[in-house]
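discrete fold record:
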Amino acid sequence: EENQLVVFWGIPINGDPSDDPPVLQGVNVIDQPVEWHLEHGSCSEFLLMMLHWQAVCGGMAFTGSADISSVTRTHIRASWPFVGEMGGMLVFARDGSAVCIIGEGDALQLFVGGRSKQDFNLIYDEFGRIGVKLERV
């Protein structure tokens, strides 16, 4: 469950068992039954995306965020190894560092995390060179 109980995730328990089942998402609306929809085709990829998201949201020791443009997103796509996409979130990673981008059009938010202060400073400096001012969290 998401921390505000708005969204739930789960795997199907009926049908043929699978070693890597799809992940379903259910939105929690008061006084209505939860309707489940496909979130991701495999549990292993879903968990990988969520681990990166949790890392940039405070799981890593050093994190930051910024509003970015679609031009910056294109730069990140070209210079960071792509991990995957889930629900519109783009995930990228390097050893000791993670980057997630959420949003649409030019309303994009960048979240970054570094395993160490040195890892974070490398990210901070890299994005600073392209005009992105990370707010340290």
